[in-house]
Design goal:
By secondary structure, the protein is mostly helical. It is built from six helices and no strands. The chain is elongated.
């Protein structure tokens, strides 16, 4: 599968997650971003939102560790700058598991699209094509 297709699928999953989490919060009459553990409605809403967030992680887990490391390097390239090669070296040094890599990427939430858009621009600046990673 091409990296652009993986990224497109990831962004669709994240967008769906954000939309569903907002719907859950609205249905429960609570803020999507606040959690008072003594408020049963907020706890229920947070639990439902957590389940939705897991779907992004499950999408990522279908790919091998090498692919996840490339995606993670793109995320950090978009967030921190530098070069793709430098970010790959940093990710490889961490030597994290497939589950940890999927969790790290999924945890970026609403920032994910911005990070990946910036990474794609940075790759173009390096003269690289996302599908040749």
């Amino acid at each position: 599968m091409k990296m652009s297709d993986i990224i497109q699928g990831l962004l669709k999953e994240e967008e769906d997650c954000q939309r569903k989490c907002q719907e859950i919060a609205e249905r429960n009459g609570v803020s999507q971003f606040e959690l008072n553990m003594s408020d049963t409605k907020q706890v229920k809403s947070a639990a439902e939102q957590w389940v939705e967030g897991r779907k992004v992680e499950e999408y990522l887990k279908q790919f091998d560790l090498d692919t996840l490391r490339k995606v993670e390097a793109l995320v950090y390239l978009g967030r921190d700058g530098g070069t793709y090669q430098h970010q790959c070296a940093n990710i490889n040094r961490l030597n994290q598991s497939k589950d940890a890599a999927a969790n790290t990427i999924a945890s970026k939430g609403e920032c994910l699209k911005s990070y990946l858009d910036s990474a794609i621009e940075a790759l173009r600046g390096e003269g690289k094509n996302i599908n040749e990673l």
